[in-house]
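Amino acids appear as letters; backbone shape is given numerically. Here is one record.
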Amino acid sequence: MWHRCIPIAVVSYILTLSVGRMYGTKHNYKIDSNQEMVALGVCNIWSSFFGSLASCASIPRSSVQESGGGKTQCVLASCIACALFTIFAKFKEFMNFWRISKLDGAIWMITFWGVVILNVDYGIYMGF
């Protein structure tokens, strides 16, 4: 397993650091490589509890955000909020299932929260 983990960690760190330095030079701010490593480590450790993939910077996403004029953390938070809004908008379907059958509604609710809290695989398994 380590022979797969180490290259992913090294590549994601180098990519994140290079993207940060590229935009840091462009917008006149300094990037602390130690702080970036700690941030990536904490982020990836926490995300591993939720079945997430390894995280790192992305040149296409960063360039789109930069060309759109985004400069604050608020832009990232609004993107996440919009994505969550569409996910939780599906919650209205629960009432339809509950009216048709209490059992169907309960299964839908268990599956929904299993996917949101655990991950997609476990949530679907819980629904069976």
About this structure: DSSP finds seven helices and no strands in the chain. Residues 22 and 95 are 49 Å apart (CA to CA). The chain has a mean pLDDT of 81. Residues 87-127 form one domain.
